[in-house]
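W.,

You were right to be curious about this one. When I first looked at the sequence I had no strong expectations either way, so I just let the prediction run and decided to look at it fresh. Below is the sequence, 263 residues in total, followed by the output.
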Amino acid sequence: MKATNSPSAPLVLKIVGVILILSSLVDYLSLLIPFRFSDKAWLAGAVTQLVDRGIIPMVGLAFLFIAYFFEAGSLNLERGKPFLSLRFWALALAGLLGVVFLFLVPLHLNNTRQASAQAIEQIGRQATEAEGQVDTQVQQRQAQLSGLLKDEAQLKRLNDTIASGQVPPDQLAQLQEVQKQLTQLKANPGALDSQAKEARNKALIQIRDRKQQLEQQARTESWKTGLRVGVSSLLLSLGYSMVAWSGLREMGIFRSRRKAPTR
């Protein structure tokens, strides 16, 4: 028993396909407006979103061609006046998208490389600024400890505050650390400079380790994003190009006319 096709099925498929294609094009325009080509971060994000949504027009094209298959019983498209056919313009759009996504591959790879270089440069500037602040902080700390050593009244108040048991736990740990340092410095006043040097070296090591971690993270994210988006864009370009080529060839656009034999 044969199943009969619903007369409304091709129309529904065409409507769905056209809506998917048009809505995706409007979405692309909204992503690109306002256009900021000089902003590498914006450009990388825009290209990534374009590629991530690049499959939607292809799904719309698939709905259109399934509808035409149901109508004609085959995918052999009529060859008369192809420029007046919706199928021709759908295939032309597929060819255009194939070129666009192919162009996005080197554009995104180059832009990702530049964005990564800018991020690493910014990380370096922030690390340099943090290193410059270390000396100031260490000097302030050194002056504070030196002042406490010379002021017996403040030292007594510090000891009384710790002994009172009314200090919150987070502040108590800091005060006990200060008390420990003061006790050591009181026994050996010359150790103040060595403690300051040790604190400075420790802070610099932490800053440089953090800098290396952030730089490695920036390089890894750049490599992963560039590879994923680049490969996806290349696959989309191949897919749209194959759809356009095969469809236009069936319509006879790329079919060369045979010359009549000469007598």
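Here's what jumped out at me. The radius of gyration is 35 Å. And, maybe more interesting for your project: Helices lie at 9-32, 40-52, 55-72, 86-150, 152-164, 169-187, 191-250.

Coffee later to discuss?

I.
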